[in-house]
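Practice problem 4.
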């Protein structure tokens, strides 16, 4: 299963992609606001990585689709993207998108493009009726990406993320299928 956008292509992670995966999840700058801390060694990263390997077009065991993201120009590894399905029924379902880009791709519109592609994938290919995203309230750049992707602030949870010895708030954004359709006509 593949996704693409104007400048990016997405594909499932393969076993030989471990070093790419590790380059994201071991990067302190990338993981600064993430809900998990950066991985400190390859052994702990491999445990996490194995959960994201998908050898078919099926959803992963944890209800997610995780993708390695590459630039179409130069086929350079840009980062990690996923969509997790939280609930599903005959009328649709709810999913959550996430993304981590390597710092050299920040500030160039790649994250917004990636988020929009994940949202489109969730609505058109997975049949979801709502897609959400969340970020550490201190991560204003990630919040900006959610806004540019058409998402609406739905709430803020107080002191739910523990990072660097402090409890941080978390902002939650969402977009409904009908909102996405209206914006993309």
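Answer key:
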């Amino acid at each position: 299963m593949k996704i693409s956008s104007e400048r990016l292509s997405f594909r499932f992670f393969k076993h030989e992609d471990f070093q790419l995966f590790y380059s994201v999840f071991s990067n302190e700058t990338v993981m600064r606001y993430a809900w998990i801390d950066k991985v400190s060694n390859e052994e702990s990263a491999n445990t996490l990585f194995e959960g994201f390997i998908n050898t078919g077009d099926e959803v992963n065991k944890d209800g997610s689709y995780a993708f390695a993201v590459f630039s179409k120009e130069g086929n350079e590894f840009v980062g990690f993207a996923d969509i997790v399905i939280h609930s599903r029924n005959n009328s649709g379902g709810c999913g959550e998108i996430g993304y981590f880009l390597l710092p050299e791709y920040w500030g160039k519109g790649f994250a917004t493009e990636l988020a929009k592609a994940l949202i489109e994938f969730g609505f058109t290919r997975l049949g979801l009726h709502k897609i959400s995203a969340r970020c550490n309230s201190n991560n204003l750049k990630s919040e900006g990406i959610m806004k540019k992707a058409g998402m609406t602030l739905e709430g803020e949870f107080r002191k739910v993320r523990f990072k660097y010895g402090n409890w941080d708030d978390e902002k939650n954004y969402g977009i409904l299928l009908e909102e996405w359709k209206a914006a993309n006509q």
